[in-house]
Structure prediction request, 71 residues.
Amino acid sequence: PPVTVSAQLEEGGTVIPGTISSATLASAGNTATLSGNAVIQVTSAPVTLTLNANDTDAAYSNTAITVRKLD
Prediction:
């Protein structure tokens, strides 16, 4: 059956709103690309950002987070 895979950013274990990316895979062996952009305001550095996979039945690869400071 189809399965929905998703990933999201978290700050200190709390989901950052607007950062969830998801896709529905129709059958085993299908692949999908998940991507997103978010501006996150940090009021007190440092913070810990994590990329959290929400589906344990999927394999995730080539994952990355790029952080840029906006002045």
User: Anything to note?
Assistant: The mean pLDDT is 89. The CA atoms of residues 39 and 69 lie 10 Å apart. The chain has no helices and four strands.
